[in-house]
Design goal:
- The complex is a heterodimer.
- Chain A contains five helices and eight strands, in the order ααββββββααββα.
- By secondary structure, chain A is of the alpha+beta class.
- The longest helix of chain A has 45 residues.
- Chain B has nine helices and two strands, in the order ααααααααββα.
- The longest helix of chain B has 30 residues.
- At the A-B interface, α2 of A face α4 of B.
């Protein structure tokens, strides 16, 4: 019986959510129950201000971030297609190659290949990126090849979280990386370093990082196998 | 509440109540991203920014926040500043951003930052909260730089990417792996405990 008046007092306050909070609401001792309206309003206002702030900063930083990403990709394409002077981007739309994406679709949603052309307009090769599981996480590799002969032109690891000191040699060990430039024969096979029989597709794996080495080789083999049949149907060119 | 002077607010977080080495807060970033000095510095800078901005803002609006929703409000404020820091790092320090990965976003749940809001900024003036946040931020930075410095020197043989030893140096790779983080934190805390204990013994002897 003694508790009842208190409860009623509380309910009366909650029932009246539309009433504007008194101007000195901030000075109310914290022990008094605060109306639900005020709780919701506080969070709503704070959320709206936070959202506005994030949108404003995003408007400023997004172009810088996109520009950096495009620049990194551009550099990588030229690295794996030695001799290329410019390149065109192809998109895989519904199983066919196209130089444009359907209206209203985002370019980033489609698999992409980059066709590199030399100074005189001759085709150097095609580059594409592909990710597969390495030892720690997905290894993302960009590679360039000649679609007609399957010659591997170059390779660059774009993203990897492989073990520092061991697996990260797939991009830090120049001797390993150099093996992926101008290889006349694919598919490649990773073998234990020094055990090669002089076969053309052999890649010396890194000692202590066999899984990472094999991941790179597998990405390139699967990537070339995926793109070659598509490219053999003819490579569309942008209207000059 | 016990009374402290403004200079005590500032100094406290740096050594006596160092967030990482004494309070054992914010250990996740302290262990995860301190394999090089550069990463440690980027992480410290982002955390410092979030901590200082959140403390100042929360100290200024503390009377407007009903106590029922104070934790949610703190998280909202912290999350906003973390998102801003994330976007800014991505735009202006993309290499570091890639190295730190998800750990930038995880500053939101760094209990050191939320702890300072609840324990200090929500009850003190803006000025004192700023001092407290800057002090704590410096303490966090010192701890991370110690971790990053030792781990990079032993694990890679460089300091700030500058090679320290000759080509015959064999890097102690485990130090840049996660296990090395735990080892290094243990060694640093051990060293600090040793220093503190000697100080206490000396005080007891002279008393």
């Amino acid at each position: 019986m003694s508790e009842r008046p208190e409860k009623e007092a509380l309910e009366v306050q909650v029932v009246d959510p539309a009433a504007p909070p008194p101007p000195e609401a901030g000075e109310v001792p914290v022990d008094k129950p605060v109306s639900t309206f005020r709780l919701v309003a506080t969070l709503a206002v704070a959320g709206a201000v936070a959202g506005l702030l994030i949108v404003l900063v995003n408007l400023h930083t997004k172009p810088i971030i996109d520009k950096y990403r495009a620049e990194q990709l551009r550099l990588a394409v030229y690295e794996v297609l030695p001799g290329a002077a410019r390149y065109e981007t192809l998109y895989l739309v519904d199983g066919a190659l196209s130089t444009t994406v359907p209206d209203g679709a985002k370019a980033a949603d489609f698999r992409q290949a980059y066709v590199g052309y030399g100074e005189n307009g001759e085709r150097i090769g095609v580059a594409s990126s592909r990710g597969e599981s390495g030892f720690q996480d997905i290894v993302l590799v960009i590679f360039g090849f000649k679609p007609e002969s399957g010659v591997l032109l170059g390779m660059k690891v774009l993203e990897s979280k492989e073990t520092p000191g061991l697996g990260d040699k797939i991009f830090k060990d120049q001797a390993f990386v150099d093996q992926f430039f101008d290889r006349p024969q694919t598919p490649l096979s990773a073998i234990k370093a020094g055990s090669g029989k002089g076969l053309p597709g052999e890649i010396d794996a890194i000692t202590g990082a066999t899984i990472s080495s094999k991941a790179v080789v597998s990405i390139i083999n699967n990537g070339i196998a995926e793109w070659r049949p598509l490219l053999e149907q003819g490579i569309p060119r942008e209207a000059p | 509440m016990r009374q402290t002077t403004p200079s005590q607010d500032f100094i406290r977080g740096i050594w006596k109540e160092n967030p990482v080495l004494i309070q054992m807060l914010g250990l996740c970033p302290a262990l995860a991203v301190t394999n090089t000095v550069k990463n440690a510095l980027a992480m410290s800078a982002a955390t410092f920014f979030v901590l200082t901005c959140s403390s100042v803002l929360i100290a200024s609006v503390k009377n407007l926040i009903p106590k029922e929703v104070r934790i949610s409000s703190y998280i909202l404020v912290i999350a906003t500043f973390v998102t801003l820091a994330d976007m800014m790092l991505q735009a202006y320090a993309p290499v570091q951003h890639k190295e730190l990965g998800a750990f930038i976003a995880l500053i939101v749940v760094n209990c050191m930052i939320l702890g300072r809001q609840e324990a200090f900024a929500s009850r003190n003036t803006v000025y004192r909260s700023l001092l407290d946040a800057v002090g704590t931020g410096i303490g966090f930075t010192i701890a991370l730089l110690m971790m990053g410095g030792f781990r990079e020197i032993l694990g890679i043989g460089t300091f700030f990417d500058i090679p320290l030893f000759g080509p015959n140096f064999e890097p102690w790779v485990v130090m840049v792996l996660p296990a090395g983080g735990f080892l290094m934190l243990g060694f640093i805390i051990l060293a600090m405990g040793y220093v503190e204990q000697r100080k206490k013994t000396r005080e007891a002897a002279s008393a």
